[in-house]
Amino acid sequence: MGRPGISQQEVFEAADSLFQEGQSISVNAVRDRLGAGSYSTIGAHLANWREENDAKKLPDVPEPPPAVITAVRQLWSVAWHEAQARLKVERDAFEAATRQMDQERKDMVAEITSLEDSGRKHEAEILRLTDQLTEGQRAAKLLEEEKIRLSTDVARLTERIKGLESLAAEHKEQLDKLVERIPKITGESSTSAAADDHAKPSPDRRPLHPKTSVPAGS
Description:
Elements: H1 8-20, H2 27-34, H3 39-52, H4 66-199
């Protein structure tokens, strides 16, 4: 049963009002217009309203006169040709745009391919430079090790040189002392030799009074 207070007449009046206003006629629209009511009750009354209002539809329109039909056909022909012309223009523009898009797509594919090739070349170059860097780092490490070894050798040789210089200085000092003593030694040797020569008899010296041998029996 419908909600008390909502009658079929109220539903019909609400539906007529909506119809005259050109609005959509539905259960929700009628209920909003009434402000209350059961959906089932309004739906049943609205179904009855639709059955009764089928006769309110527009009457059948008579066939137009031949002149009107001819004018309409002419208008339709003009409109159709204009539409075809516009359609052709739009079709041509669409085909041109399609061709342009295809060309752009081909250009993009070619560019992508070129970029990929360039990327592969760059990757190969990066690998080559990385190898060179690794080799350079290895060479730098070897050079650093050689530098350390040479530094050690230089330090050892420097110490050796200092020792040799010290030894040479000692030898020079001893040599200088010997050189200083040479004149003294030479003088002493000369004096001693002269004394020895004076003490020895000269082979050419003869006695001043040679002994005279006396004959036996004198």
